[in-house]
Here is the input.
Amino acid sequence: MKSLLLPPHPKERRVVFQNAWTQGYTPDIECYEKHGGYAELKKALGMKPTEIVDEVKKANLRGRGGAGFPCGVKWGFIRRDDGKPHYLVCNGDESEPGTFKDRYILHNDPHQLIEGMAIAAYALNANLAYIYIRCEFPKAAKIVTKALQEARAKGYLGKNILGSGFDIDIHVHQGAAAYICGEETSMIESLEGKRPYPRIKPPYFPAVLGLYMAPTIVNNVETLCHIKQILKIGSEEYSKMGTPGDGGTRVMCVSGDVVRPGPYEIPAGGVTLGELIFDVCGGLKPGRTLKAVIPGGSSSKILRAGESFKIKSKGADGEMIEKEIPLLDLVMDAASLAAAGTMVGSGGVIIMDDSRNMLWALNNLNQFYAHESCGQCTPCREGVLWIDKMTTRMVKGEGIAQDPATLQNVADNIAGRTVCAFGEAASWPVQSFLAKFPEEFAVGEK
Amino acid sequence: MEHHPVSSSGNSPVIAQAETIPADLLAKIDEAVTHYPVSKRSASLPLLHLWQNHFGFIDDSAVKWIAARLDLEPINILELVTFYPWFRQQAPGKTIIRVCRTLSCAMAGSYELREKFCHSVGIDPASDHHHGLPTSPDGNYSVEFVECLASCGSAPVCLINDDLHEDVTEADVPKILTQYLS
Ligand SMILES: Cc1cc2nc3c(=O)[nH]c(=O)nc-3n(C[C@H](O)[C@H](O)[C@H](O)COP(=O)(O)O)c2cc1C
Ligand code: SF4
Ligand code: FES
Here is the structure.
């Protein structure tokens, strides 16, 4: 990835990415230790587990996997001394189209993840953990497996780690090319060796009834790396890097029609969309103008160039004021993107210029969702297939006048009626493309 | 999710795979099972991966053998083979080329790239990948579309065997193919 070999952009602040592209940095444990590796695990083992959970809460770390749930709050659901076994699962499935950050961590800095996981396991009183890695990352699985062996040999993993009396074992578990396994309850079923049909919530919230029906925390790769960094920097400094309620840095993965695509680690809220496109990523290709932005992975709702949003914020006197914010001035943090009707999601930002056809783009995404539905719920299984069939015929010029209305109707009847959030993930693109670009979907009378 | 048909005829091997398990594969299987102290069933996917990496695909004897090794019914293994796109019941080409199909790669030309790979190795680009991997007549290459490979910033990308190739152009195809000639 070319952009990573460049020096960090002034808007960037490489925290979880700090070592991964340092000249001469290698994924072995000696190199990691030279760069301060495992110092925070030692520190953590001297702390009370509840102190660690409090630090994570105060850091305002939101999960980086897509749903953006506050990590400390999630950890707070685990009762350390309920006498049950607890499990930690690292989500390294990274399959949301547009997202490419975890793969770099797994390949270039596996010990940062392992240290984050060991700290998390200690805080949660989990003695067994798995790293679920999609099988399309075969080299990552080898690198992480080797790193786990190194960490075990040095006493950072295994029985009575560093003489603390705490035991933690971590194993790699490879997926088998199914996007749905990124959904946490599907991942748990997959880990149990079953067809990965997501579980219904309630009652199967992982923190209550997770892996092997025991309390389980599922966290994204990047999230777990931030845990190590929170202990290093301290929750106060860490939270200050972001905005209130969205602490620290976030890797924004920019792809599509920009001059310098790539993963950029930026303090939450540290750039506007315009700065991200035109400053950090070097702008659009010559002679092109912006048409659309998918801001948080393919499942997030699309935004249209030129639109603006009414966003409430606190004024200098503490009063809430409402301002009209043009698209390019939209701040890239969880609250601002939610106010614009979409989400920061997995940080996958897909930029499209005026050469792109929105019907074609939506059809591409519909094919993805049609291929990946697990088939458990009728609205999703049938709905995404028909949505795909409709846009496929529209792309061929064989659409009929009522197609846009039928598309809308099918999407509206999937969202909210399924076992897992894949139903929304597949409907939101349809609903938002239709709402934002109606003229590209209109089919003339034949 | 595509559900592959269960193969009963066609490429069925002369010798059942389970008759020829080498000692090093057995050792890896034993090791993998130890990673799941709570439930052996959890080792299903790892065992299928080890098996497919060794034999190239999963035959009927494999389903029975793995099920027996984990104290399961064969259907518990077969339902995984038929659910997960990664597992195959027919032999693939020696080199497997997986071109990313999803949006960022498609915008960067991945549809054209897949066609170029197909034409270059003698596969009909229109061939249906729901019935085994489309494979070149000489058995050297399989070409398929896959969904987002998490490398969208260097689109278009493809995964060839274990190697990720980034920013691939159609002009790179001949050079890439010779790299994989055994
Ligand atoms: C359809 C679907 C796919 C998902 N894919 C991923 C994924 O590839 N990686 C990931 O970390 N989270 C993914 N998630 C989110 C997980 O369910 C879960 O929220 C996340 O792993 C929790 O970790 P975090 O709190 O650290 O973000 C997905 C969710 C859904 C509904
Ligand atoms: S919403 Fe779709 S992916 Fe999720 S459980 Fe239902 S059928 Fe499966
Ligand atoms: S779209 Fe091809 S790697 Fe993501």
Remarks:
- Residues 93 and 141 of chain B are 4 Å apart (CA to CA).
- The first helix of chain B runs from residue 23 to 34.
- The pocket of FE2/S2 (inorganic) cluster (ligand 3) is lined by residues A 97; B 100, 102-105, 148-152, 155, 157 (CB under 6 Å).
- The domain at 95-178 of chain B is CATH 3.40.30.10 (Glutaredoxin).
